[in-house]
Design brief:
Order of helices and strands: HHEHEHEEHEHHHEE
CATH superfamily: Vaccinia Virus protein VP39
Distance between the termini: 27 Å
Number of strands: 7
CATH architecture: 3-Layer(aba) Sandwich
CATH topology: Rossmann fold
CATH class: Alpha Beta
Structural class: alpha/beta
Number of helices: 8
Helix content: 40-55%
Strand order of the largest sheet: 3-2-1-4-5-7-6
Shape: globular
Length: about 240
């Protein structure tokens, strides 16, 4: 297994604390950079991920590592559930998200609150569906976080995880590596004013146990009928698991 990657190598604090600090630092510019650096394709990826839940028509959804709540907003529009709760360890990101929900007049439908993925603050079998977009690679303990998601999911429910993966075929692989490891960190550093955030991003993707390795962990914590759906030549992947 590859060594754990952290945002700030010069500090002794754990990955969880560093990730929270990093997202607090970049929260004001996060949404702009997210869409700009992906050239808007991340919106399409989120829609494809949420559409994996249409068959179960969830009434309650938990969005883990919600950030500013972009995936939760897509879920509300495409699934029309009764309620969505988004949890995150970055108060900076949550504050941006809360303002977004008020601006969109959907704060009554999407609640944004502090919550640790490894200690999800809800009882067993609380939600019909669980979603995560680009958050699981930031978990300090991946298996523990996935296990908590399984715990709070109702029987018959689904978890849908959207995460970066590494394309394997020419020329997507070469173009992805050039952009992801050189151009993206340079632009991200200038706009976000954080020297490490957008260098950590490709490092964390490289260290993440993608594909079958991730599916093995996903299954080991209790999810069933797990599968991977590759997007845009393997730049991102949707992982789906049932309970």
């Amino acid at each position: 297994m590859k060594p754990q990657v952290t945002p700030y190598k010069e500090t002794d604090s754990g990955k969880k604390d560093q990730v929270a600090e990093m997202f607090d630092n970049i929260s004001d510019n996060y949404d702009f950079l997210n869409h700009f650096l992906s050239m808007g394709i991340d919106n399409l990826w989120r829609k494809k991920a949420i559409d994996q839940l249409k068959s179960i028509k969830p009434k309650t959804i938990l969005d883990v590592a919600t950030g500013t709540g972009d995936l939760a907003v897509v879920a509300l529009k495409r699934l029309a559930p009764e309620s969505i709760v988004g949890i995150d360890i970055s108060e900076g990101m949550l504050n941006v998200g809360r303002k977004k929900m008020i601006r969109k007049k959907i704060a009554d439908k999407i609640k944004m609150q502090y919550g640790d993925s490894e200690k999800i603050p809800f009882s067993d079998k609380s939600f019909d569906a669980i979603t995560v977009a680009y958050g699981v690679r930031n978990f300090e303990d991946l298996a523990k976080g996935l296990g908590e998601m399984c715990r709070v999911l109702k029987p018959g429910g689904k978890a849908v995880i959207l995460e970066f993966s590494k394309p394997k075929n020419f020329p997507v692989k070469q173009a992805f590596n050039l952009y992801f490891k050189n151009i993206l960190p340079f632009i991200g550093k200038i706009v976000s004013k954080d020297n490490r955030a957008y260098t950590y991003l490709p490092e964390s993707v490289d260290a993440f146990p993608e594909g079958n390795d991730f599916l093995a962990i996903f299954k080991a914590v209790g999810f069933k009928k797990v599968k991977q759906i590759k997007l845009s030549g393997g730049i991102s992947s949707i992982y789906v698991g049932g309970k």
